[in-house]
Amino acid sequence: MSEIKSAPAEDFSLTRGGPFHRLQLRFGLAGEERQRVVRRALLAILLTWVPLFVLSLVQGQAYEKQIRIPFLRDLAVNVRFLIAAPILILAESGIDQRWRTLVLQFLRARLVGENELPAFESLIERITRLRDRILPEALMLIAAFLPSIIVRTELLMSGVPNWHTAGTGSGAVSLAGCWFNLVSTPFFRFLLLRWVWRMFLWTYYMWHVTRIKLYLIATHTDMAAGLGFLSDGQKAFSPIVFALGAVIAAQVGNTIAYQGATLSSQKLLMIAYGVIAIIVLVAPLLVVAPVLRQIKRRAILEYGALVTMHDQQFDQKWIQEHQQLGEEILGNPDVSSLVDLGSSFSVVRQMGMVPIDKPTLVSLAVAAALPMVPVILYATPADEIVRAVLKMLG
Predict the structure, then answer these.
(1) pLDDT by residue (tens digit) across 275-314?
(2) Environment class of 228 (CB within 10 Å of its CB; exposed 0-12, middle 13-18, buried 19+)
């Protein structure tokens, strides 16, 4: 059986489009080549972090001891623009390729037949048009800049002298603080909002593609009627979860280092981030649940009836009439068919409503927890760490 080919599916992308992408194309920055991706990440650092460092250095706020939080000791701002922002850009290529692979899987697995191919391609073209519209990114820009315009300053540490202000107790925003408020932070928000938009488009795709007449089999061993591979699309978001976790961890680190907070007082925030991150990334898969529920409900009735008929025939042959037949049951194919059909029915009964697997949940949980480890080590006394290590080794 030959694989169905589709040019729109092979060219599927949620990142290669929109006004910002076209702007990058004009300057030769767009593309999935490693060199161009790294160049975009470095330019993000050049736009967001380098001016903050230079301006704070000029005004004597980079590392001076008289300031409670000089620029170079601000964990939150350095992690946000040196680690998180580049990851949000570097992750684009890998996640986009994973999405394209999943779209092609609908064809490779023959879930989409020849008759449904036009509807399948029409959906991809509709999503591509949505991706390329100007309005979504225009709204993202407004949402990214609006908080900075309304608040006019964004001090990370209220009541603590820091590099955001022009002088201790003056209340005036420094040059670095202005750049942070009007350029660096809106740019970071814009990167985040673009990922929210892409996640919406991917959710929109999953909703509509599962409403096409797909060839889904309830007895598929992935326990999701053949849609279990969609879980990989959410696992691909592990770098994004890590990046945002690093931002949260750095902010917690600032609170502990400069405001006297304790690890136990910040524990709820760190746990809440991990739980919310997993819920947010699993939630898009819920759009598939109504289809899987319908398939499971129908399959339980159909396979249940088939199992009943098969068991009745088996009982009649091997229990009720065994004395007259005189056959040996050992090695008879009837027993094998009884076991196989029973196994198929068990798969149907165990079929899940959401195509999510344990490795995906573990991957997301690890990505959320990993940035918290340095904060925990920093806030935990050395003797407690040694005792904990010895206890594990013992």
Answers:
(1) 999 999 999 999 999 999 999 999 888 888 887 887 787 7
(2) middle
